[in-house]
Write the C-alpha cells for this entry.
Amino acid sequence: MQNVTLPYVLSYHDRHGKLRRYFRRAGVKRIALPGRPGSPEFMLAYHAALAGCEIEKKPVGADRSAPGSVSAVIAAYYLDNAFLTLAPATRQPRRAILENFRAAHGDKRLRVMEQKHVAALLGQMKPFTARNWLKALRGLMRFAVVIGVRADDPTEGIKRAPVKVGTIHTWTEDEIALFEQHHPIGSRARLAMALLLYTAARGSDAIKLGPQHIRAGRLLYRQQKTGRSLSLPVHPELARIIAATPSAHLTFVVQRAQGRPFTTTGFRKWFRQCCDGAGLPDCCSAHGLRKAAARRPAEAGCTAHEIAAITGHVTLAEVQRYTIAADQARLAGAAMQKQRRTEDA
C-alpha cells in the first residue's frame, strides 16, 4: 500500500517491535488508530479524532473561572455528554457561539440571567444568527438546570426568529450542463461535482470520500452532521468519472498544491471558483447540487422516503418540498393536456 502522510499521525514501534499509530495533537489526549492507513477502520477513527480534537481540548479558562459563573458553566458543559454527544458539525458552531457569549459575560453569575436579557440579546441579531444563538444558549441553560446552577431555563418560551426558507438555489439542468461543458471528465472540478450530484452528499462529507468507501459497487459512509450511516449504489456516471480521474490519495478530491484533503471552508471557496470559471451565477453553490440531487428523483416520481434514503435527511420536511413541487408540475401538465383534448373535441 502506498505510504500517505496524514497530519497529526504518529507512528512508532513499541518495545515488542509492533508498529503502532496514534492521532497526536497538542492539547488533545493521544488516540490510538487501528488498522492500516487507508483502511475503513483507520480512516473512520482518524476523521473522528480530527473532527473532535478541537472539542476535546481543555476548555479555555476552566481552571480560573469562579463557580457558578458563565465561564465556569460553559467549561463544564463542554465536558458533559449533553454537549459531547452532539454531532461534530453541531458542536463546533455552538462552541463558537458560547465562546463569544463567554467573552462578553464570562465573569457574570449565570443564575441572574433572565428571559428579558436573552430576548434583548437575540433581538439585536439577524434571524438566522438569532436562531443559532438560541439553540446554543438553550443547551447551556438546560445543562445549568441539571447541575443545579439554575432553577429554571430563561430561554424557555422564547420562539425562534422566523426566517425565509429556500434561500439556497437548486441547480437547474441547464446549469449542470454548463458546468460539465466547462469542466471535462478527468478534471478535479468535474469529479467534485459528480460526488455532490450523484451521492447528494454535503460538501463536508464529499471531501472525505475516497476509494476505501466503495465496496462491492456501493458507497458506504457516515454523515458528519447527523452521524447517520448511508449505503448507496454507485451511480454508473459517477463510477465512470472516478475511473477517468487520476488519484493517488485517500480522498478523491484534494488540494492541488499540497495534495491534502480540503477543509470544508477551503472546498466551498475552491468550488465557487470552479463555478465562476464556468460562467455560472453566484447563486450556484456546492450545497445547491445536493438539492439538485434531491430534485431529480422527485421529478422521476420517487417518494419522500425514497429520496431521504439517498440524502440522509432525518426529517422529511425538506424532502417533501421537492416531491410536492414535482407533483405540482406533473399534475399541471396532465391538467393542461386534458383541457386541450376537451377544447379539440
Notes: The chain has three domains: 1-57, 63-164, 173-331. The radius of gyration is 24 Å. The chain has a mean pLDDT of 85.
